[in-house]
Amino acid sequence: MTNERCSSENLSSDKSREVIEKLGIGFHKLNNKFVNILEENQKINRQYKNLEEKIQQILHTNSELSEKYQEILRTNSELNEKNQEILRINSNLIEENNEASRINSELRKQIQERDKQFEDLQKHVSNLEKQRNDELQQLQQLEIVTQTLEKNLEIMKCDEIDENIIKVLKENNDDFSSNFLKSLEKDTEESMPSFNIKVVVGLDFGVTYSGFAYCHVQTIQNVCSNVNWHGEVGQIKTNTALLYDNGYNNLLRWGAPALAEKLKHRKIKLEESRPIELFKLYLSDSSDKLKPKLPIGCKKAITDYFKEIGKVIKETITTRWPTIYYFEDVLLVVTIPSEFSGKSKAIMRSCAYNAELIKEERSTNLQFITEPKAAAMYCVTNLENRVQPMVIPQSNSSVMIIDCGGSIVNLTTLKLMDNIKKFGEITKEAKDFCGSTFVDAEFIQYLRSVLGDEPIDLLKDKHYKQMQYLIQHFCEYGKIPFTGDDPDFLYELDIQYTIPILKQYINDDEIRETLEESDWIIEIDFKTMKSIFDPVIEKILHLIKSQLDNTNETCSAMFLVGGFCESKYLQERVKKEFGHRVIVPAQPIAAISRGAVIYELSKRVICTRIAKYTYGIGSYVDWNKGIDPFIRRTPDGKIYKFMTLVKRGTVIKCGETFSFNFKLESNQSSASFTIYYTSNHNPVFCDEPEMKQLGIYDLDLPDVHSDNRIVKFGLTFNQYEVTAFAMNELNGRTYKTQYRN
């Protein structure tokens, strides 16, 4: 038992120790946890203190911000007060500006009234001068009557009247009638409307493009085309286009700026209004389907366009010749299609008057000329000034004017009269819509094949002016440079640079991916560009062929004019098809406006000139003893003297000829004429001090075996040239040489 108890106690003691050990271990763990908790608590206390400090800082900062906010509120209040003061000052300034505008308007009215009074005064003075001249002419007529009556009275005092006296009376009456009729003719000529034109302006008002040329009547060989449009120099024409505000009440822009605009930013920019184009078609006999729908009347559009281009005309003339008075000294020649009716011309005249291009609606300072006739006039004149050999059309032959414009291609066959600068009736006409803008349309059609219809439709509907800028870019860097003879030709269209707005309308993933791979650049090579041109050019060639087939007479020359004819590719295609007959003048785009000026100048140029010199030739004649100096006698009994053809001071009509017949000696195979001129009225010898040589004219005479050969030699005087000619009257062969003098 004792052992069992001892064992039991030992067992109990072991369990107690084990429990105590476990309790010790648990206490140790709890103690560690407690220590950790205390440390964590200290850490939290420190963080709390830090937070309290930060809260204090935030509260302090908030207090400072509140003070600053109050300061801002006070400053804002002061600014509001100052803004109100500025608004009051601005209102006062607007009122003062309105008052100044009103005063300025009144001053302009007063100036206009004074100008009108001055014009009326000028007219009154002119009428007084005319009345004085009329009275002087009447007095002269009365003097003629009085003198004749006095002569007759003196004769009647004689006691006898024989046949001689009757004859004298008749002669007196004849002299009276002659002088009286001459005075009446002079009176009639001077009473005709004054037409002291100093400058001629030719206005080519086209369907798609317009431009003008001008020239002073004293410098008829210096016809100029205007190349200054909207502050930029270089283009001969500008677009026939207008841009108004939304209500179409105020004109914002005209010409090229009205049509095209490059988008400077990539965000969408909505159009204020769509440009108005092709309004001239309303004056033609074209189908209504081809005429655009206009938001305003065509008369208003034409008037507004005339008014703007008229400002450029007046400014150009005033800058060039400051003393020119536009309404009195300038003749405006407007070109029109040959099919224009009298009604269309009346509308254009009315629009020109309303646009202040002419002073009165019936003013003779506005004339019309058909476009084909103006173009033909320019082309023929241009031919005469060429140095290289050309096919020059002869009198009574037919020529074709191929006017390739922006929208329409007009073909007109004209008959040349005896004078090749005079044109007869139009024998055949044809036209079609296949101008240069149809190449632009083919380009847009190609873009549709690359980008799809939707992007192009959206661009056209929402950004029409940016689309026109795209077309202008194509014209400048693609259409115009294309000649058709460079297989390496390449036109690159950079969409991101040229027309960035187009990118947002390209939604097709495959198309976008392709464009992104090419950096948004579309390349148009030689073959593609040719395919863009050819449908339009084929239509033009077919039109020309039909015109030739339908014309009974042979066409001796074909003139290419109009803006589209600036295209080298079009020129080469037409030349290749129709050969040497095709002639391209120096500036085909300006042919019509320049031709209008040349035509009127040819009618109004001074038709007479006064010879400033005595003209003649050196001639060997028989020496006359007692008359001619012995020292000048040649061994064969001749003397070299000056033979006068025209004396200084002679009134010469333009184109007038002075000539003499020269009989050739037997077996004479050549002749030489030395032409002289001098300021001396009665020269005798060719070596006098003031004598000058104009030129030497050598002539070959091959028909030496013929008898009684006569050569007619002479000088023909034009406005600025002297033409020497010699005609072999045996065979009719004529030789000419021009000299400027």
TrEMBL record:
InterPro entries: ATPase_NBD. The keyword Lipid biosynthesis does not apply. Residues 34-159 form a coiled coil. Keywords: Coiled coil. This is Hsp70 family protein. It comes from Rhizophagus clarus.
